[in-house]
Amino acid sequence: MVVDTGRKIDVHAPPSEYYREPASRRSAGIHRPYHQDPHLSLPMQLLDEEPSESLNQSPERIFRTTSTFSNVRRRGSVDDKSSHPRRFLIDIDVIEKALLAQEDSNGDYQITIEDSGPKVLKVPTAGSGGFRTFEVRGTYMLSNLLQEMALARDCGMNQVVIDEERLNENPVNRLSRMIRTSFWNGLVRCMDESGIQAICLDPKNTKPGASPIIYVPYDDQPAFEYYTGIARDLSNLKIKVVKLPKDITPRYVKSINNEFGILSLAADVSYDANGRLVYRPLPFVVPGGRFNEQYGWDSYFEALGLLNDGRYQLSKNMVDNFAYEIKHYGKILNANRSYYLTRSQPPFLTDMILKVFEALPASTADEKASNHEWLKRSFDAAITEYLTVWMEAPRFDQKTGLSCYHPTGIGMPPETESTHFDHTIKPYAERLGVSIEEYKTLYASDQISEPELDTYFVHDRAVRESGHDTSYRLERRCANLATVDLNCLLYKYEVDIADTLDEHFDGQFSWSGGRDTTAAEWRVRAEQRRQSIDRYLWNEQKGLYFDYDVLLGEQSVYESVTALWALWAGCATPSQARKLVEVSCRKFEVMGGLVSGTEESRGVISLQRPNRQWDFPFGWAPHQIIAWYGLYNYGFVDVARRFAYRWLFTITQAFVDFNGVVPEKFDVVNMTHRFQ
Questions:
Q1: Does the UniProt entry include the keyword Hydrolase (predicted)?
Q2: Nearest CA to 651 among 631, 668, 676?
Q3: For residues 124 and 160, what is the distance between their CA atoms, to the nearest angstrom?
Q4: Is 465 in the active site?
Q5: Which of 19, 95, 105, 425 is least enclosed by beta carbons within 10 angstroms?
């Protein structure tokens, strides 16, 4: 029998600790003063806690079955606080069945404000050994009860004691705690033997019906040996291990579009006393549960959260993975899949490196020396990325001195759904008198040439490289746009490199690319870019930064919240900052935070012109976070706090009302994550 022993465990401990039951608290079952018929289709309805004499009543009077819940009514949400912390004695199977049957009216295995149940369930108390019950009320507490039972089951428990404080915990504290103790762990991936099994079964990484493929760089022999060994040991998965060529050209990447797979990442490599390879792939964090790859700019924001929660090693691993990608694949990739080999993402590496460096343990001379060497390797990779990716054609525009998102991939991107581009292909197919599928086959095999379509796919890939996929701000023109966000990020690179060289390398750095570079050189680069940003992107009359079309030679008219990235990067003058903040508050501040762009810029929406997720009325965390830091840096602290409050309230409201959900984006105008 499970009994309450007045345990001294932290009420807010991680599930793995909280639900680790000592042997003295385990038993075959919870004592219940009633007989439960296993054939009942509906659960027992549990009564309120009653006076002690009710315990002498028959089980039939204490626990009664019912075919409806019409006699269960909603109650107020305020209780008199007990002088003793209340605990509940939970038989997970019984209580979960009762909770879902009564409260989950739409059958989605969640308790939300959209469910029409009475929002009150009577649960046995631990102090009474299960004889008495107490009402758990409201969407928030009931959904927390459902979540806690799931967490307990994941820990191998079927009968537990749950503290009321765990169910009515302040939602801000609960969300922060759940991120720290549960969510991060659920997002960790690793390309070791165990992780590879999950990765290879991911349809995003393997073509249906084909063998999983792991691609490794031509000069990473340890990776080739390691994954060849895994393929041998996991022969049932029929894994293929393929060495990439030394020169990874766009034409080569296109040639493997029908054989796409996962790309290897960094590892700790050593050899034991017998000369045998010891290969330990580095764990990393993914942006959501359905992903198995490390993504580009998502990793920066993940790192901010990981560092806040003391998980510096994971953040450091992700920097090391990026350095590996730059060394072996030529750039930080959209993600480590083969069809991303020609595509990068918004560059945040220098700031990511510095924030990780500041968090590394540095209490001994050895630690300080190791950290300095890591900083050197990491900044060497960042300089390589800057010079060979963002300052080279086709991404760099010589005339303006600004950079564009302009990946080098050719043909139709293979990662989309098979019908994704059918509406685009249709007029070309009709013109040729063939079906859409026939046209796609002919186009993919270079049997037909269509320059207009080639250009369309260049811009489509550029939108994906920008991280803002998709938006009418960028559609069909992205590769021609020197965007505010990209050039602010690169200005930040230039300043970060200059400052780091001065602070840690005596003003000069021996770059592995073949020449020394100095802090003074990078300050010149930063000033040149700042002047170009002022000349081409800043609009004094409108008090806003705009993207610049390098092909047409004119500013875009789309009003984007990315204008505030200039504050994060520090490239705005105080006068520009004042105007920018005044205009941005008027144009982008809405009830739920900062909206991606204005409704006017987005334009009219219809069936033929559907909404895009990075346009009005949507808001995303990266835009909010960058704005907060930028505003704070320029002294607009009250505005930053107001923006932060709006966004955090939006997140918390969804968390409370929708069973602990944390969506990737919100309709911040209408304060909801529920939209088509």
A1: yes
A2: 668
A3: 11
A4: no
A5: 105
Rounded Cα gap, residues 282 and 298, in angstroms: 17
Catalytic residue of the set 219, 392, 540, 664: 664
For 445-483, where are the alpha helices, taking DSSP H only? 451-465
pLDDT for residue 514? 87
The label of the residue with tokens 């075919």 reads 67
Relative orientation angle of helices 349-359 and 365-385, to the nearest 10 degrees: 180
Question: Residue 127: what pLDDT?
Answer: 92
- Alpha-carbon distances of 63 from 35, 54, 57, 360, rounded to whole Å: 9, 11, 10, 58
How does pLDDT run across 213-228, given as a tens digit for each residue?
999 999 999 999 999 9
Q: Residue 62 carries which side chain, given as an amino acid letter?
A: I
3-state SS assignment for residue 382: helix
Q: Which among 96, 469, 496, 547 is annotated as catalytic?
A: 469
Decide if pLDDT at 379 tops 70. Answer: yes
Please state whether beta strands 213-216 and 240-243 pair in parallel, antiparallel, or not at all (unpaired): parallel
Q: According to the model, what pLDDT value does residue 202 have?
A: 81
Largest distance between two CA atoms of the chain:
90
Q: For helices 193-200 and 221-233, give the axis angle rounded to 10 degrees.
A: 70
Catalytic annotation present for 103: no
Kindly report, residue by residue over 135-148, the tens digit of the pLDDT.
999 999 999 999 99
pTM: 0.91
Residue 182: DSSP 8-state: I
Question: If you ran DSSP here, which 8-state letter would residue 535 be given?
Answer: I
Predicted confidence (pLDDT) at residue 281 exceeds the cutoff of 80: yes
Contact yes or no for 550/400 (Cβ under 8 A): yes
3-state SS record for 306-337 = HHHCCCHHHHHHHHHHHHHHHHHHCCCCCECE
Whole-number Å distance between alpha carbons of 610 and 131? 57
